[in-house]
Amino acid sequence: MPTAVRLSLFVLGVHLLTLLPVDIPGLSVVQAVSGFLILSFVPGYLLVSYVLDEFTLAGFLYAVGFSVAFSMFLGSAANLLYLGFDTAVVPFEQPTMSIIYLWASAMLSILVWTLTDPNDVRTFTVKFPDYDVRILTLLALVPTFAITGAMFINRYAFNELTLFTIVCIALVPVFVYYFDDRGRYYPIAIAAISSALLLQNTVITTYLRGGDATREFARANFVLQNGFWIPAGTFGSMPRIVTLQPAYSLLTDVSLFWVFKLVHPILFVTVPLITYVLTARYFSKDIAFLSATLYIFLPRTYQIISRNTRTGAAIMFTALLLFVVLDTDLPTRLRQLFVITFFIGVLMSHYGVSTLVVFALFVAYVVNTLAAYLLDGKRFSNLSLRNMALFGVLFFVWYEYMTDGIYDFLTMSFYNQISDALFFTQGSTAVRSINLATESTGGAFGMPSASYEVMFIGHLLLGVFTSIGISLVYLRYFGDGIPYRLDIQRWIDRNVLPGLSDDVLEDSDYVHLVVGMFLFFPLSFGPQVLSAGRTFALVMVIVAPFPILVLRSMRFERIGSKPAVVLMVAFLLVTSGFVSAAATHDVSPQPIIDGERIVESGSTTEQFAYYAGYTSRNTVTASNFLIAYLPDGANAEVTTVSQFIPYFYEGNRRANIQFSRFDGSTKNAEGYTYLSEPDTVTGKNTQSFLGFVFYTYDPLPAFDESNTVYTTGHDRVHYNG
């Protein structure tokens, strides 16, 4: 019996035992681990072990990606069968969900066992370096400290451990880079700092907050309550939310709330690892390590994408798609299977990201084909015209017929982005963002603090350095194909990129995919400045090595990569909220770290920034009170920053509340005024949102003549009548 089959059957057997109605200490942990492995590893491991001879880091990444996609497809198919045949058993309930996945993995195990030739002496080798347990333990402490520190902030408002952890995260790449001569610990270090930053950012909040997390939770929770899902709209049509999240919750027996907090960040750790492996294929291991570190150190990657599961999953599948497109070592059939699987994974995760990816692939294919025809020694694209046609058909069919017809919405949105964002016109997002920044009441560039100024300028410089790096590689690429540019070729070889991999010089797919993806960089400066975390996380997967190329000296060995390392460490310390919490006490990019001080004595702008990414337990309790006890059809006045969070209400009665804007008067006609914690802590009646963290506001009135019908201390409900 093949090793992979034995492991698979063991995991399946263990999970089956956890479904028995017995109460054994620790059984819940066993169920959580086995359920996670069934959904995230087992199917892909069976496939990779059958086809490949060695199990490397690349094989592990493929196994995880295929398993997640397979689990998403299987859950969607089970739901489709239920809708089509109206069976008596709904799919999204236990033990039905576990039985579905156990049966599928068991069938796959039997298939691999059957197809494996018993006379084949080929052995499947797990190929990883020998590691020092002591170093592994030290690296494992980093995410452990990060999670523990986040919980201390969440429960006790104690932030010293988190501040210490941020320093450790910043220093880990420095020590590993300069003391690990052979790069054995590079992937482990990347996984450690990535999981630390991602999990710290999700565990630190009491409730889901930021981006689309709460709406994604509401959709997934609706599926768990009903046992099935019907494709509808932009959120409800993405199986990554309505299929996979409920499946993880059911198989692991973990609440959906903690699935959002833990599972997605753990899966997203694969993305910086893909950046490392992909970059190492074309450049050195050192550049690959620094590139992956830069990727995860970008603040909007770990601060936003860790909470947005649709976007994060689409970026993960995009990274895997780029990875497999450029992997010429895979067997052809396995490669084609992965290409189609990961592309469909992008489609099923996020409509916006999938649109950008289709456009980037199309640009890369066209330019690639032209270069292969016009230049000497350039390879044709691994993506065939048949692949591109298939991508187009899948994109159209999925978004036109399988997702309640959001194809028109996508095409118009994409057209507006192309016409308004990719090109620096007066209406482009980049120009509008800069105009907003300069017209606001903040400091330099309109930023509300020095920390945000560093982030803003850092992102601009990142674009500049990336442009220079791509330009130099492109010049070298063209110089290699056009003989009369030999002088340029020699100058770049001697002064800038000595020893550049031949793969870069010949692989048209790589250089043109880089350019196709980099076209979206202006979207990073979206209508709300620095809000487009998806763009940074999407673009920098493949683009990350190019600013590193510019920020390292090949002529002066004593300088080497020190500029890149120093800038990345400083950038993390400022943009992670460390400097704001420990020294400057200004508006922080991660204000939750210093939340207690901000609530008690912070400036109004600090408090606005804090509540933009934080929801208190009292606010959720107050929201539940409104839903449960206000009369049906009641009118409730709220301010611009008022927080009403209905997603965690579990009662049967649900009042239909009509919300209106609070005009500042306490003598209005009969009705309610709801003031949430952001209103009472700031003491402001916010009237309109200017952009970023800026609002127009007046002082909040006293409500002396109104009846206070409910209060949690900070949250209040007043009644006029």
From TrEMBL:
<feature type="transmembrane region" description="Helical">
    <location>
        <begin position="564"/>
        <end position="583"/>
    </location>
</feature>
<feature type="transmembrane region" description="Helical">
    <location>
        <begin position="383"/>
        <end position="401"/>
    </location>
</feature>
<feature type="transmembrane region" description="Helical">
    <location>
        <begin position="185"/>
        <end position="208"/>
    </location>
</feature>
<feature type="transmembrane region" description="Helical">
    <location>
        <begin position="135"/>
        <end position="154"/>
    </location>
</feature>
<feature type="transmembrane region" description="Helical">
    <location>
        <begin position="536"/>
        <end position="552"/>
    </location>
</feature>
<feature type="transmembrane region" description="Helical">
    <location>
        <begin position="510"/>
        <end position="530"/>
    </location>
</feature>
<feature type="transmembrane region" description="Helical">
    <location>
        <begin position="311"/>
        <end position="330"/>
    </location>
</feature>
<keyword id="KW-1133">Transmembrane helix</keyword>
<feature type="transmembrane region" description="Helical">
    <location>
        <begin position="56"/>
        <end position="85"/>
    </location>
</feature>
<feature type="transmembrane region" description="Helical">
    <location>
        <begin position="337"/>
        <end position="353"/>
    </location>
</feature>
<feature type="transmembrane region" description="Helical">
    <location>
        <begin position="454"/>
        <end position="475"/>
    </location>
</feature>
<keyword id="KW-0812">Transmembrane</keyword>
<keyword id="KW-0472">Membrane</keyword>
<feature type="transmembrane region" description="Helical">
    <location>
        <begin position="262"/>
        <end position="280"/>
    </location>
</feature>
<feature type="transmembrane region" description="Helical">
    <location>
        <begin position="97"/>
        <end position="115"/>
    </location>
</feature>
<feature type="transmembrane region" description="Helical">
    <location>
        <begin position="161"/>
        <end position="179"/>
    </location>
</feature>
<protein>
    <recommendedName>
        <fullName>DUF2206 domain-containing protein</fullName>
    </recommendedName>
</protein>
